Amino acid sequence: MRTSRIVIAFAALALVAAVSCKKPAAKTAAADETFGAAPVKVFKARRQKITEKITYTGTLEAWNKINITPETGGKIARIYVQEGDRVAKGQLLAELETESIRLQLRQAQAGVAVAEAAYADALRNKERMDRLLKEQAVSEQQREKVQLAYDAAAAQLEQARAGLNLAQHALDISIMTAPFAGVIASKNSEVGNVINPMMGGFGGGAGGVVTLMDFSRVKTVVAVSSEDIGRIRKGQPAVLRVAGRDFPGVVRVVNLTADPSSKKFGVEAAFDNPDGLLRPGTFGDVVFELESHENAMVVPQKAVLENSYVFVVEGGKAIKKPVTLGLQNTTMIEVLSGLSEGLPVVVEGNYGLEEGAAVQILEEVQQ
Predict the structure, then answer these.
(1) Taking each helix axis from N to C terminus, what angle separates 99-134 and 140-172, rounded to the nearest 10 degrees?
(2) In terms of residue numbers, what domain contains 268?
(3) Res 365: pLDDT
């Protein structure tokens, strides 16, 4: 009985040993299959729209900006707005002291009234004299005297009306209104300051009474290189990219001559800003869309080596494929020939890779 137990024990040990010996053999075979394979990530070539773009950075400017300054000098009597106020076209913004101008206006109005009365009397006399002359009831000398009085009255009336217009103009230019709807960007003076536009401002400074901006639209001017200027035209779509948001716009001006110092060309583009999110004085990237292909074969730019070839994975090996390239954007590039749709193109791990090298795909990226 004891002998049987010993035999069974030895048999069990032999079975365990046999199983233990087989497991490492399986692991070794799997290791042999992947030994030396380069780990790579791939992207399957696909068809999609691709648009070639170029990007330049510029400073945003308000569509309209003006320093509100009276045409005549004087002391500022009232300022009706504050910084940040939204104003309508024609709204009263500020005015100079106008008491003396209003007195002159009333004086001019009275002068016109007197002149109109004198003219009306002279006209009646002239008409009466013309009738009497036809009836030969007065002499030509008498008619000429009345005609001279009429001419003088007409001239005095014209002079009085000119004085009234001048006084009214003086009042008008002392009252500052908004030439367009917008926002008060800054308040540049205070009540009591004396402003003299002929001296370039007030109190030794400049900038008018207030600064009015309309940035319901914004514009930006960018300096474009000579290599790119030929690909940008007036009316071309453009996109302003600020803080991750895109604002559509259009190219308005393309300079024909380069700046003498920078040798670059100024290009102005305009963008709608209905929500006021774009602020003048800040920076933004202006993206110009140059050309688009609707059904292009594309791969990530990092898949292309030396602008001439890519590696694809076939049968677990890296195969070198010469390619002809087309349009490109910030991340993708068009392949005109050399690839077919669905081929796994190596996008990571391709640098230093050799033709026919074993590869192991770690991930298929979607880009």
Answers:
(1) 160
(2) 55-62+214-292
(3) 93
